[in-house]
Amino acid sequence: MNKERKLIVAGNWKMNKTVAEAMDLVRSLKIELANVKEVDMVVCPPFTALSEVSKAILDSNLRLGAQNMSEHNVGAYTGEIAAVMLKEFSVRYVILGHSERRQFYSETDAGIAKKALAAHVAALKPIVCVGESLAEREGGRMEQVLETQVRGSLAGLKKEQMEETIVAYEPVWAIGTGKTASAQQAEEAHAFIRGLLVKMFDETVARRVRIQYGGSVKPSNARELMSLPNVDGALVGGASLEGRSFADIIKNSI
Ligand code: PGA
Q1: Residue 99, SS3 per DSSP
Q2: Closest to 169 in 3D by CA, of 230, 224, 223
Q3: Distance of CA 210 to the CA centre of its chain
Q4: Contact between 64 and 57 (Cβ < 8 Å)
Q5: In testing the pocket of ligand 1, which one of 13, 43, 129, 170 has its CB within 8 Å of the most ligand atoms?
Q6: Closest Cα to residue 53, out of 28, 19, 93, 29?
Q7: Which one from 100, 107, 136, 170 is the annotated catalytic residue?
Q8: Treating both helix axes as pointing N-terminal to C-terminal, what angle do 47-56 and 19-32 enclose, rounded to 10 degrees?
Q9: Contact 18, 32 (CB under 8 A)
Q10: Cα separation, 45 vs 15, whole angstroms
Q11: What are the pLDDT digits (tens) for 211-230?
C-alpha cells in the first residue's frame, strides 16, 4: 500500500497477560512479523510485563509502548509510574487518554495534555486518544466533541512535539463492541481531526501527524480502513491479544 505517512499499528493489551502469557504472545509475533518493514509495530503490555517484553523484543522490529503514565516526574504519587521509569525498559510510545481512562478514571483533556508534554520531555512518543460516544454522535455533536478533545489534549505542544505525537481516533461505540466505524465514518473523522491540526499548528505539521483508527479493528476490516487517505494505522485492543490476528492485521495493512 502506498501511503503518504508510514503506518503505525499498536496493540493495546489493556489489563491482560501475565508475564508468562506475554512471553508466549511476543514469541509468536516475532515469528509472524519477522520480515515486516513497511509498518511501525508497537506492543503495549501492562506495566508488569514491560521488563520481560522489552528484553524479548530487543532483537526484533517490534517497539514497546506503555498504556499510561504520570504527568509528574517523581514523588509522592502512590500507584503512578513516571516517564523515566518507562524509559528504563526502552519504552518508546505511551498511550494517553484512552477512553477507558477518561471514563473509569476521570481523566480530563487538561490532564492528558500535561502527560503528553511530560512524555515529550522524556522523549517518549504519546499516542493521544480521542473519540465520541454513541450518544454524542447520534446527537450530532461528534465534531464539537472531537474539537474539544483534540484542542484540549494537545494543548501546549510545540510544532516539533506535535509531529512526533500520534493521535488515535477511537469512537467509543466501536471499542470492544465488534462495531467498526464504516470507511466513510472513519475517513470523515480523521479528515476533520487533520483539519483541526492545520488550524492549531500548520499544514506541514498536520500533514506529518499520523492518525490511527481504533475500535474493533480485525484482520477482515484492516485493509479497507488502512487504505483510507487519512488513516495512518490502527490502535488494536482485543485482536492484539492473539499473535495470529495481530499479525494478520499488520500483513493486511501492507
Ligand atoms: P478494540 O479496542 O480493538 O478491542 O475495540 C481498541 C482500543 O480500545 O484501543
Answers
A1: helix
A2: 230
A3: 10
A4: yes
A5: 170
A6: 19
A7: 170
A8: 40
A9: no
A10: 8
A11: 999 999 999 999 999 999 99
Q: Which residues line ligand 1 (CB under 6 A)?
A: 12, 170, 175-176, 214-217, 235-239
List Cβ neighbours of 33 (8 Å cut-off, separation of 6 or more).
41, 60, 61, 62, 247, 250
Residue 98 annotated as catalytic: yes
* Tally of CB atoms within 10 A around 96: 29
Residue 176: band (very low, low, confident or very high) from pLDDT cuts 50, 70, 90: confident
CA-CA distance, 69 to 165, in Å (whole number)? Answer: 15
31, 64 contact by CB (below 8 A): no
Residue 201, CA distances (Å) to 9, 84, 154, 165 in order:
24, 28, 10, 13
Helix (H) or strand (E) holding 39: strand 39-44
Kindly name the residue from 98, 107, 120, 190 that is annotated as catalytic. Answer: 98
pLDDT tens for 77-105 read 999 999 999 999 999 999 999 999 999 99
Its pTM surpasses 0.85: yes
CB-based contacts of 88, cutoff 8 Å, min separation 6: none
| Sign (positive or negative) of CA dihedral 146, 147, 151, 154 | positive
Other CB atoms within 10 A of residue 85 CB: 18
Nearest protein CA to atom 9 of ligand 1, as residue: 237
Can you tell me the distance from the alpha carbon of 223 to that of 250, in angstroms, rounded to the nearest whole number? 9
Q: Which residue has the cell 500483513?
A: 251
